[in-house]
Structure formats: structure tokens, C-alpha cells
Write a structure and sequence with these properties.
The protein has two domains: 42 residues, no CATH class; 278 residues, Jelly Rolls, CATH 2.60.120. The strands form two sheets. Strands 1, 2, 3, 4, 5, 8, 9, 10, 11, 12, 13, 14, 15 and 17 form a 14-stranded mixed sheet that branches. A three-stranded mixed sheet has the order 6-7-16, with no helix packed on it. With 321 residues, it is mainly β. Helix content is 11%, strand content 41%.
Amino acid sequence: MKRLMMILAVAALTAGISSAANVVVFDQGFGTDTDGIIFESGDGENVVRVSSGGGTLGVPSGAGDYHAEVTLSDTYGVGFFTRNGGYSSEWPGYIKQSIKIYIDPAAGNFVPGSGGTPDSGDGYFWDAAMCDENGTSWAAGGGFGVQKTASDTWSVGAEDAYGGFHYVGETSAPHGNVTPLDITSAGWYTLATEWVQSPTDLDLIDQVNTVRDSTGTLLWTDTIGDYMSHTAAGVSRAYKDCVAGGISYSWLGSQAVRGGAGSGYDDHPSDASTLYVYGNTMTLLAVDDVHAEILGEPVVPEPAGLGLIGIALLAVRKKRN
């Protein structure tokens, strides 16, 4: 029995040598400032820190006593971005980029088309990107398109290159879930993109996108398997021909006034064959907890812990002798 206890103690202590904890590289909850949130006032961008229940929108904060109100417009990309603490050329083994957004079905507008005029309405996107192996160029990105619908809800779905949605039959990124999530209740929702090692091919990286409500309940997920390689370019098994580096930007932006099936831009929230033109009338959006983390270095026990391992090993050896 004592021998078994010693073995278990050694196993528990040595397990700590190879384990690794995630490291937060950027976290802005707007408790004291807006540092790290980058916007260009000359382009009509603005981010204002407000107290819970205050500001123009008057919504409660998603975490803590403060959040931010972000200006939207009908110009593509207007919003903000962050460098997540600095771009990196090294693939760390795991990256997560996330944001909390207050989504209210009562906000925003949808205008049905008629007489050949396409439907139109409000929309924005959340985009998470990775660097290439040089740590300077954008290598890959993706995330979420968010669009107002005819049923007075907001659809959140897999983003294409311009913030719209992917659909069955599209030849772009091989999304695992192309059916958008309909948001019917006002509240805070966390949109997260995770870059993870492929469970079937250690040379490749998967992109996993999730939506959770304020309680942390998973509402929607989408995976692009074998997105790209982190070892070499030209890997035929990868969707994107590039070598992944480390973390790059996260970007919240307005949709453009453009769209339509077959145009290479944005499709309709509910029907890929129908045109949809963006024209934001909703000029503000509440956001909170802009966050990024990566896989950290292996955790090595303190010297005292290593001493315990030695004692345990000696005890086991003596027992064997």
C-alpha cells in the first residue's frame, strides 16, 4: 500500500512538469481605460468607455462595472482592432481570441426588398487572425458575420472573407456548420475563435468558432478542419497554403454596402440565392472583455516539489531493495 502511494505521489508531481497553462496576452475589460483598442477617429471610428447601465445604450456591463460603446457605420470595416499584445511568428500550440457583444433583437433594422430591390439591413463582423511564420503578414483569419433578419432577430454565422456567411455548396473554406444561429433574446454573447492542433494530423491547425450566452452555455459551434500547416508551406492536406506563425489582430468592423450571391461578397442571412445589401442605421454597439490567450510554457515544479519527487523515488527504490 505504501509503495502504491509513493508511485501515485511521483506520478502526480511529475505530471506537473509536462503540463502547461494558458497565458493571457491581451485582456481589455474597460475597467480603467481602453488601452490596446485601436481606432481611427479620422475614419469615423470611436470607442468610448462607459459605466454599467450608462452611456448611450444604457445596457449593463458584461463583466465588471464598465464596458465600451463602439461606433458602427455603413463604411466597411469601421469599428476597432487590437494587436493582442503584439504579433508573433511562432506557433504556440493554441490560440484563443474572443469578445463579449451585447446583442439585442430590438436594435437594428431590416428592410425587405421589392420590385427587384434587394433586402437590406444592419450587420457587422468579428474577425480573428493569425500571423505567418515571419510574424508580420496576415496568414489566416475568420470568425463571425452578424446580420439583422426579417424575423427581427440577429443571425450569427460562419464568416466569409468579407464578413458575410458561408453556405452549403460554397467552395471557400470548408466550414463544419453553415447554419447561422438566431439570437432571439437580448444579452451578452461571447464570440470566440480558437486555433488548435488538429487531432488527426499534428502538422495541421483547425479553426474552431463558438458562441456562448452569458452563463457560458454553448449555443453554436463551427470548425474548419485542417485549415493550415504550422510546419511547412505546400502541405496538400491543408485548406490554406501557408505556414502559420503566432497571434495577429482581432477586428470588430461594420459590414459594407454591397453583397449578393455569386458576387464574392456577402449573401443573405437566410437564403444564399438572395441579394442582401448592408446599410447600418445602428450606429453603436456595446462590447466587453476583448481577450486573447495562448498556450504557455510547460509548468516546472518549484525546487521544493522536485525535492519531494527525489524523496519519493528514493523511498520506492529502498522498498524495492
